Amino acid sequence: MSDLLDEYPMLMFALESLLALFLLIFIVVWTSSGKKKQARIAQRARKTPGENSDNQESQP
């Protein structure tokens, strides 16, 4: 491993930057999915069981 780093000294920086990029993308995706999940939970909480559009159409 040290021979590889001796031949290519910038390899460690490239690997570290790829890891940082992956971590950044992961954090952005993780936090944006949490916001969507919270919005869905809030939307369900606002809806009452009698407001379902399928039930209103089937009832005369």
TrEMBL record:
Source organism per UniProt: Paraburkholderia sartisoli
Name of the protein in its database record: Transmembrane protein
Annotated TM spans: 12-31
Keywords: Membrane, Transmembrane, Transmembrane helix
Compositional bias ranges of the Polar residues kind: 50-60
Segments for region (Disordered): 33-60
Composition skew (Basic residues), residue ranges: 34-47
Superkingdom of this protein's organism: Bacteria
